Amino acid sequence: MLDLLDQLNSTPGFLYTSTFILGLLIGSFLNVVIFRLPKMMEQDWKGQCEVLLELPTDKDKEEEIITLSSPNSTCPKCQHAIKPWENIPVISYLFLRGKCSQCKNKISLRYPSVELATALLSLFTIMHFGASYAGLTALGLTWVLIALTMIDADTQFLPDSLTLPLLWAGLIINNFDVFTNLESALWGAVFGYLSLWFVYQAFKLFTGKEGMGYGDFKLLGALGAWLGWQSLPIIILLSSVVGAVIGISMILLLGKDKNIPIPFGPYLAIAGWITLIWGDQLKILWLGSI
């Protein structure tokens, strides 16, 4: 494995091109995860409620079970089955001019945007870490953070099926001292979860409202498991700054109602990724300013 990584590092052109193409393909898959995972969760909750409430099942109106692999992708308007050549990341969107090949319904620009963003972030990650164990695992973290960002932005949910495995993966990876040591990762998970839990409880006590969801606690705990407890102040500060900038911009430029709640997960994810890449420099700035 080390020999293969060394060979990849010795041919940066091939490494970066391969990473970019892989990022496009993963971005296409993430589009499926972002769209389908909330629907899978909703379908599962509905089924559990029917069982608990002992509701009769109408077999004539049974919904098709949604998974990440089925049913096949179709146009939401005309139900045209997406052909393989119509599903090439970014290229198919450009070739089809952003429209369904059958009904000419517009395809959301978001799909190629997620693909391109995933490719660029993947490329930047490998340019920073190189072909290494840290680089490979950082790619995985980057991809999960992209999915969590988009899902939370759409639904204000951070699925346990993503946040909890992410937390355990951080602990396992840092058992081998990839980003930090295991002790730092363990306390990062503990303090990450509890810090936002205490903020949630204090806010609820004083206002009677819920300021954030439990998914935010789990995500910060997962980031603490990956990057260590020393990174938590930086992540929290960065997420607050990013949230303020984006929130104010949405209110001023897009006219978004300031009373409508904005999910905090995307800001945590963005701050976590920035800390993943520039964490050492930010720690120096942070400690140097104290």
Low-pLDDT segments: none
Tally the helices: what do you get?
10
Biggest sheet architecture: none
Question: What portion of residues belong to β-strands?
Answer: under 5%
Shape: globular
Structural class: mainly alpha
Total strands: the figure is: 0
Assembly form of the protein: single chain
Beginning-to-end CA distance, first to last residue: 42 Å
C-alpha-based Rg, rounded:
21 Å
Q: Mean pLDDT across all residues, rounded?
A: 88
Helix content: 55-70%
N-to-C SSE string, H for helix and E for strand: HHHHHHHHHH
Summarize the structure in words.
The chain has helices at about 1-10, 10-50, 90-95, 110-130, 135-155, 160-175, 180-205, 215-225, 230-255, 265-290. With about 290 residues, the protein is mainly alpha-helical. It is globular, with a radius of gyration of 21 Å.
Structure characteristics:
290 residues, mainly alpha, 10 helices, 69% helix, globular
Q: Would you spell out the secondary-structure blueprint of this structure?
A:
Elements: H1 2-10, H2 12-52, H3 91-95, H4 110-129, H5 133-155, H6 160-174, H7 182-207, H8 214-227, H9 232-254, H10 265-288
Helix pairs in contact: 2-4, 2-5, 4-5, 5-6, 5-10, 6-7, 6-8, 7-8, 8-10, 9-10
Briefly characterize the structure:
By secondary structure, the protein is mostly helical. It has helices at residues 2-10, 12-52, 91-95, 110-129, 133-155, 160-174, 182-207, 214-227, 232-254, 265-288.
